[in-house]
Amino acid sequence: METSSISAKDVNFYYGDFQALRNVSLEMERNTVTALIGPSGCGKSTFLRLLNRMNDLIPGARLEGKVTVDGEDIYGKNVQVVELRKKVGMVFQKPNPFPKSIFENVAYGLRVNGVRDRETIRSRVEESLRGAALWEEVKDKLKRSAFELSGGQQQRLCIARALAVQPSILLMDEPASALDPVSTSKVEDLIYELKKNYTIVIVTHNMQQAARVSDRTAFFYLGKLVEYDRTEKIFTHPSEEATQNYVTGRFG
Amino acid sequence: MASADKTARRKRRSEKAVFWLLRLMSLAVVGVLFWILGFIVVKGIEVIDWQFLTGMPKEGMTEGGIFPAIVGTLCLVAGSVVIAFPIGVMSGIYISEYAPDNWLVKFIRVMTNNLSGVPSIVFGLFGMALFVNTLGFGDSIIAGSCTLALLVLPVVIRTTEEALRAIDHSYRVGSLALGATKLQTIRKVLLPMAFPNIVTGLILSVGRISGETAPILFTAVAYFLPKLPTSIFDQVMALPYHLYVIATSGTDLEAARPMAYGTALVLILIVLFINLLAGGLRRYFGNKVKTN
Ligand SMILES: Nc1ncnc2c1ncn2[C@@H]1O[C@H](COP(=O)(O)OP(=O)(O)OP(=O)(O)O)[C@@H](O)[C@H]1O
Ligand SMILES: [Mg+2]
Fold it and tell me: What is the pLDDT confidence band of residue B160, given thresholds at 50, 70 and 90?
């Protein structure tokens, strides 16, 4: 499967008068996991939502600068937002399966993108559920409501749902923060597996998690990108004092 | 210690008193309701038989049945649903999902709410002016249905809007993030979720309008018409108006009295049936939505 590279250059982002991102530049390579860390309100989610243009939905939001995926400007005139979002999948903090069956949840992205063939849909659903390490748990109850699953299973269902449309990038906004430790470690293992086939950007407040799953880590503070480097370096010898303070927990 | 104990006891006692007062009040209300219902059931059940339900009125409406009135009411109600449902749901979708949040939309929303407070006789007058005269429908099923639809419309718009607004934002975002368009999100995620509430709202308001007399008075009903309608441009009899007529202006009011109770009972049964249907459909769709 093709994966993609992402680049943001001199990005400023505003919610009305409030500037949420200040001059952020960041390059992410294919098949890497990038962790976005930083204190609450520093702009991590804002940055993440730029990458699949979910910020477009917020009235009064405005972007300056350039964001590209595989070298293509995703805010360019001819870009189809719907196509972009197929390529750049997203998993949210709170599991948000649709009130449909497990099967239909995963098939949804295919159906809205015009896939009609039943066999294609069936096999893609199975493939995606396997990819999200959920198949064995749900294969006998695909017709049951997704709401009958546990929170952790629901989150993996949402990951499967995102995988089904075959994105090349996966954005995850604190995907494990609403989960118990066992489900969390399942999701982390999953992220590790997915790295082979996807470029992943993950927001997390959990330093161990960032250290475990990511190759590179970006530390944001007050809308600025303070430091961006190999995860190992960020957590052992960061160049900035602020980063050092944050990763060691000496920071509000 | 002793005084704290006393306060606690006093508190408990006054709580008990209030509880009993509330209980008595609700029992009284329910009691009156059952008394009225019981009265009509007892009086009405005597005249209700197959002949009453399927026959034509005879002898200055003191004999025979009320079949044309039943058919007329069903036609009017069905017509109003066919008109109000699509228009109301689409307006509700527009207001909730598409309309910008400006003063005009706020104004429309307030006016829609006010509309449901307008006395139904005013709707009747308006319906006569617009549908009967200006559009030339004459006194007919179509004119009556349109007028009733105006009455239901604010309710349908509001329940649709509220049902959509009640849906958590995360479902919209979740759908859009998968590459769905806004329209697909509305059709495939939001509407199925809102549907049980919309249908319940619609059916409940239909239950209410099926007993309305004023809106159809100048637009659809005939005083006495012992035959069935053959087109939507025909006049009809209707249960509430028929009831009014035989209770107040027949040739022999005393002789028609039992017929009036029978008509009232049929009307109540229809409304009751509609309300039960609303509950049933809601449960049915509620279950379906979760698993389809
Ligand atoms: N829809 C919005 N409208 C206005 N301001 C917003 C909106 N969303 C976020 N903000 C503001 O932008 C800033 C960055 O928010 P963002 O959600 O990106 O932070 P975050 O780093 O993800 O925080 P957290 O860790 O708490 O999720 C915050 O100050 C926030 O108040
Ligand atoms: Mg956030």
Answer: very high
Averaged pLDDT for residues A83-87: 94
Q: Which two tokens stand for residue A236?
A: 């052992």
Question: What's the complex ipTM?
Answer: 0.91
B52's tokens? 């009453």
- Given B10, B25, B44, the domain boundary residue is B44
Which residues on chain A are in Cβ contact (under 8 Å) with B292? Answer: 100-101, 104
Residue of chain A minimizing CA distance to B185:
A112
Q: How far is CA B53 from CA A10, A227, B64, B239, in A?
A: 79, 83, 9, 12
Q: Which atom of ligand 1 is nearest to the CA of A47?
A: 18
Q: Is A195 in the pocket of ligand 1 (CB under 6 A)?
A: no
Angle at the Cα of A50 from the Cα atoms of A47 and A52, rounded to 5 degrees: 130
B31/B135 same-domain check = no
The whole-angstrom separation of Cα B247 and Cα B266 is 15
Q: Are residues B32 and B80 in the same domain?
A: no
- Which tokens hold the place of A78? 């001819």
Mutate which of A98, A148, A173 to test chain B, going by most B C-beta atoms within 10 A?
A98
Q: B93 and B228 in one domain?
A: yes
Q: Residue B28: which domain range? A: 1-44
pLDDT digits (tens, 9 = 90+) for B63-116: 778 899 999 999 999 999 999 999 999 999 999 999 888 888 888 888 888 887
pLDDT in tens, B241-280: 988 888 887 677 777 788 889 999 999 999 888 888 888 8
Q: What is the pLDDT of residue A46?
A: 95
What residues of chain B lie within 8 A of the CB of A54, using their CB?
173, 176-177
Q: State whether B259 and B208 are in the same domain.
A: yes
Suggest the residue from B170, B178, B186, B292 to mutate for an interface test with chain A (most A CBs closer than 10 A). Answer: B178
Q: How many domains does chain B have?
A: 2
